[in-house]
Design a protein that fits this description.
The complex is a heterodimer of chains A (114) and B (112). Chain A has 114 residues and is mainly β. Chain A is built from no helices and 11 strands. Chain B is mainly β. Classes of the chains: A mainly beta (114), B mainly beta (112). The A-B interface holds A 32, 34, 36, 41-46, 49, 89, 93, 95, 98-107 and B 4, 31, 33, 35, 41-45, 48, 50-51, 55-56, 58, 91, 93, 95, 99-106.
Chain lengths: 114, 112
């Protein structure tokens, strides 16, 4: 019930292409879905996040699509760049909460080839 | 821009020894977290801390672990008697009242 499943495990995309990473959750109480980007040797950094009251959120080249009925959400990176090469984690949480702990997916290693 | 800092960046210890990992959260934040990431695996929640007490802990956070906010700025994670399987990257995170959690750069703990 607490799991967040993420796919694919790794992804190779050509520069300028679209990168798509998918996540699925089980707990319908989750109501906050962030994506984190992590470079080697660094901590995760928030990239973009969505609440279930909207089906899509776009920030620059990054878009989250959210399907509440299917309990799935995905990250789309348009015009992928070599600098986007990193590990991406989806996560889920329940708010409001005195904890707000994040449940992370397994991560996707993205490589963007020049 | 304010950031979460962690020290040390790398800690090597012998099995059975005590370690203390230190974090300085962002100054006006109210909620504090520890997560860990075993090499190549996902980030896992350990514990959350609010209003000077633990608000939630995971199954991983057993009696060997403790957290403390000894003053107005530091947030520490203590492992009393380290095991080989405690080897991981430990991340501190903090947030204000809104949703975003900000992560520190992590402490790599190696238990020999």
């Amino acid at each position: 019930q607490q799991q967040v499943k993420q796919s694919p495990q790794s992804l190779i995309v050509q520069k300028g292409g679209i990168s798509i990473i998918n996540c699925a959750y089980e707990n319908t109480a989750f109501d906050y879905f962030p994506w984190y980007q992590q470079f080697p040797g660094k901590g995760p950094a928030l990239l973009i996040a969505i609440r279930p009251d909207v089906s899509e959120k776009k920030e620059g080249r990054f878009t989250i699509s959210f399907n509440k009925s299917a309990k799935q959400f995905s990250l789309h990176i348009m015009d992928s760049q070599p600098g986007d090469s990193a590990t991406y984690f989806c996560a889920a949480s329940k708010y409001p909460s005195n904890t707000g702990k994040l449940i992370f997916g397994q991560g996707t290693t993205l490589q963007v080839k020049p | 821009e304010p950031e979460v800092t962690q020290t040390p960046s790398h800690q090597v210890t012998q099995m059975g020894q005590e370690v203390i990992l230190r974090c300085v959260p962002i100054s006006n934040h109210l909620y504090f977290y520890w997560y860990r990431q075993i090499l190549g695996q996902k980030v896992e929640f350990l514990v959350s801390f609010y209003n000077n007490e633990i608000s939630e802990k995971s199954e991983i956070f057993d009696d060997q672990f403790s957290v403390e906010r000894p003053d107005g700025s530091n947030f520490t994670l203590k492992i009393r008697s380290t095991k080989l399987e405690d080897s991981a990257m430990y991340f501190c995170a903090s947030r204000a009242g809104q949703l975003t959690q900000y992560f520190g750069p992590g402490t790599r703990l190696t238990v020999l």
